Please model this.
Amino acid sequence: MKKLRIGITIGLHHAAETLWNNGIKQNAVFLAEALRHCPNVESAVLVNTTNVPITDQLPWDLKRWPTVTFEDAKDNVDVLIELGGQIDPAATDYLKRRGARLISYCCGFEYVHAMESVLFNKPSFGEHLFVNQRYDDIWMIPQVANISQAYFEVLRRQTAQVVPFIWSPVFLNARTERFPQSGEYQPHDGPRRLSVMEPNINVVKFCLYPAMIAELAYRERPDSIARLQVTNAEHLAINCKEFISLMNQLDIVREHKAVFLGRHETPAFLAESTDIVISHQWENPLNYFYLEVCWQGYPLVHNATLCTDLGYYYEANKVSHGAQRVVEAIDQHDRNADHYKSEQRRAISRFVPGAAEMTEAYARLLDALQRKPAR
Model:
């Protein structure tokens, strides 16, 4: 089989867009890097589907990760992977007439987003929804399969396949190189700063259970906890009476040991402001945030079932177990901080581009794609 020229879509909103407002652009870069290790791939480029110009203001190396417009890519790709930007029917038809293949790469919780749009009047697509039904394959990362696979398959009229999750420390390392000790966890004496950094934009990752975990740990060990910091929650603490009422039931809040903050960039907040991170997910059992925290050596207390070997895992919604893990991190983490960091990085290596099993899996997927009849 011929080696494939692959394009991966992104949707730029402005020319100097940050990499840290969501994971989509990082996902596209990591996928390009991973596919280049496949023996049946000739090249992989990023393809912008918006009218935002491509300049050297972009926060990645354009020589390492070439980025082009759809107009420049449409005659030079054998496979277009639609990841961060959607193409329209005319563009789809053009690629199909050329014999190119089209893949939908699903890395979001689209069923949850659709449900919330309908139930809570949060417009996202409105009456002009376009669902492309000409994909040759649907690839979805493991953590979205349980809740969204049927949503993908019914609307797109195509079977979806689980594909390996990909992450790289390349952007994290670039962002932290200016910090002392590269922003990695540093043992120290004294009480710990607990942090909760859930996005708080839907039910998938919400700060309430992590705050309750912190509360139970505080009730047991008040002198060992300096404060609880809840990011992405300032608007809730100011404007939401229900949230305020719930938080005021907690000792850690009533005793003025909790602060509710706005949005913070993960690498900087880790390096400057925290000691232990507490997380809770509902149908989001693997994401970049967990890997960033653990790669830097910070104790992560979490219930993510697809990475139970990372951090300090607690089961399901058992906040009492989570609180036990917080206390364990307070008491023991500094004794083994270097070993913990090296073990975290060893475990995370399975997600890094170039990992043997990942490379083999994507090469098989591309071989199977070439054998399928075109749609």
Q: What stands out?
A: The domain at 170-350 is CATH 3.40.50.2000 (Rossmann fold). The chain is about 40% helix and 15% strand.
